[in-house]
Design the sequence.
C-alpha cells in the first residue's frame, strides 16, 4: 500500500525540492499551501504549478489571516530589507520573520494529515543557508513532533505516529539545488522572492533572493527562473 504524506508547499526552491524528495521516497504526496496575507501571494500560483509538475496526489490552499496580526514585513506595509545582490545575509532574526508562522502551518498540516490517516509530514526547513528564523531549527521541529504525538487521535491510538521529515535541514542551498536537479525539479516555475513585482519577477535583493542566488552560483548553474514572470 502506498504511503501517504502531506508536504508543506510554498512554491519556493526549498519546498519544491522537499516535495521531490518525498515523491522519490515512494510517498503519495498531498501538498498544502497557505494564503496568509503575504505580500508575495503570487507564490500560491507557483505552488500549484510545482505540485502539478511533480505529480502530487492533490493540492489544497488554506486561508489563514496572519495579516490581521501583523508583526512582519511579509504581512504588513513594513519594507522588506534589501541589500546588494552579493552581500551576505545579516545575522539575527530579520523583520521578514512571521510570528509563529511554522507553528500555525504545521498545526494545520497535522490536522490534514490526520484526516488522511497518516503521520508523515514533510517541511522544507533549513538551518544552514537560511534567514535565521527560530522556527526552522532542528530543536523546534523535534519539540513540535513531541507535542504532535501527544495531540492527535491517530498517534495516541497508535495508528499513525507523527514523523516530521526535514530532508533539507542540514543542507546548503547548493546541495538543495543539486538534489532538486537530480530529482527533476523545474526551478523555472519556483519563486523564492519576498518582494516580487506584480508579474512575479524576483527583486534580486531580499534575503531570500540572495540566498537563492548564492546556491545557484555555488552549484555552477544558471537560475532558470531569472527573466521569467507570470503573464
Sequence:
Amino acid at each position: 500500500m502506498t504511503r501517504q504524506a502531506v508536504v508543506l508547499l510554498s512554491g519556493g526552491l526549498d519546498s519544491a525540492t522537499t516535495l521531490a524528495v518525498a515523491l522519490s521516497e515512494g510517498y503519495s504526496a498531498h501538498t498544502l499551501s497557505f494564503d496568509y496575507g503575504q505580500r508575495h501571494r503570487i507564490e500560491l500560483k507557483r505552488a500549484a504549478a510545482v505540485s502539478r509538475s511533480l505529480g502530487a496526489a492533490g493540492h489544497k490552499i488554506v486561508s489563514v489571516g496572519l495579516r490581521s496580526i501583523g508583526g512582519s514585513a511579509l504581512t504588513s506595509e513594513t519594507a522588506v530589507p534589501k541589500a546588494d545582490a552579493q552581500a551576505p545575509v545579516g545575522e539575527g532574526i530579520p523583520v521578514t520573520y512571521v510570528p509563529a508562522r511554522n507553528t500555525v502551518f504545521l498545526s494545520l498540516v497535522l490536522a490534514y494529515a490526520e484526516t488522511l490517516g497518516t503521520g508523515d509530514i514533510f517541511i522544507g526547513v533549513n538551518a544552514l543557508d537560511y534567514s535565521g528564523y527560530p522556527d526552522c531549527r532542528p530543536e523546534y521541529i523535534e519539540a513540535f513532533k513531541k507535542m504532535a504525538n501527544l495531540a492527535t487521535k491517530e498517534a495516541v491510538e497508535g495508528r499513525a505516529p507523527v514523523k516530521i521529515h526535514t530532508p533539507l535541514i542540514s543542507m546548503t542551498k547548493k546541495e538543495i539545488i543539486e538534489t532538486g536537479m537530480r530529482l527533476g525539479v523545474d526551478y523555472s516555475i519556483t519563486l523564492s522572492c519576498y518582494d516580487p513585482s506584480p508579474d512575479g519577477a524576483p527583486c534580486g535583493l531580499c534575503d531570500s533572493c540572495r540566498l537563492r542566488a548564492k546556491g545557484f552560483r555555488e552549484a555552477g548553474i544558471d537560475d532558470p527562473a531569472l527573466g521569467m514572470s507570470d503573464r
